[in-house]
Design goal:
- By secondary structure, this protein is mainly alpha-helical.
- The protein has nine helices and no strands.
- Helix 5 packs antiparallel against helix 6.
- The longest helix has 36 residues.
- It is globular.
């Protein structure tokens, strides 16, 4: 029994550490974050055009010799706040959705009467993978911003790494909360494709619209609340409800597993 208890988390960890889809998502988001930050900084510094007839990049920030590190970091933070929630949702939903096809592993779990242990291990691994994904996106975006000012002699004094620890830690925390939320919703409903589409539509389309109607109340919405973690003055009161819901659903996901459930 003890051997089975140890084997399940090890199998889960080995499986997800080498998952090609998750690796591609994290690496792709990191590369995209670096590119977006670099180009946005070049545009803000006047070193490049926003483009015409091609990709349009707009920024309300202008980087000048009077600008400070906070202005540069803020531009990188915008890309992080956009990409990290998308990575987190894909990580969480994929980990839950793959339960439908992981027959061999579930047979081990059922035989050992440890199906709950499978989902507990998977929830922990989701949190770890999501945190690493958040760190990759944050570091890449900051590096891209730094590379953007490297070609501007007048802005060479700016540093994207001054106080970058807050952005990196905040990105990891945001990714963990949203990934656990996505994982739990997909596992509990067993409709991972529907949950994936619904969450992506919500984050990209619906939440900005809802936030516009709510005014100051929009600070309580999941994406906006967790994005505040990227700043040094995060409103933890707005973040706490999202964290409580994510943790509560994660506990329910593990607690409600039945050892006799089979893959259909």
């Amino acid at each position: 029994m003890i051997a089975s208890d140890v084997r399940i988390p090890l199998v889960e960890a080995r499986r997800w550490s080498g998952d090609g889809v998750l690796l591609a998502v994290v690496i792709g988001a990191g590369v995209l974050g670096a590119m977006l930050s670099a180009v946005a900084v070049l545009v803000a510094a006047g070193s490049a055009s926003g483009g015409s007839g091609g990709l349009q990049i707009q920024t309300d920030v202008q980087l000048t010799p009077a600008s400070g590190d906070a202005d540069l970091i803020g531009m990188a933070r915008s890309g992080v706040a956009m990409l990290v929630p998308l990575v987190a949702i894909i990580v969480g939903v994929r980990a839950a959705g793959s339960e439908m096809a992981s027959g061999a592993l579930l047979q081990i779990a059922v035989a050992a009467r440890r199906l709950r242990l499978v989902f507990l291990a998977r929830a922990v691994i989701v949190a770890v993978v999501a945190a690493l994904g958040g760190v990759v996106v944050a570091v890449s975006s900051l590096a891209g911003a730094q590379a953007g000012v490297a070609g501007s002699p007048d802005l060479a004094f700016l540093s994207a790494w001054s106080g970058a620890g807050t952005v990196i830690a905040g990105a990891a925390a945001q990714a963990v909360v949203l990934a656990l939320l996505a994982f739990s919703l997909a596992a509990l409903t067993r409709r991972w494709v529907l949950i994936l589409v619904a969450l992506l539509v919500y984050l990209v389309v619906l939440e900005p619209v809802i936030a516009g109607f709510l005014g100051d109340g929009g600070a309580w919405l999941p994406r906006r609340a967790t994005s505040s973690l990227l700043t040094s003055d995060a409103d933890l009161g707005s973040v706490l409800p999202v964290v409580v819901v994510a943790l509560g659903l994660s506990v329910a996901t593990v607690a409600w597993r039945r050892r006799d459930r089979t893959v259909r």
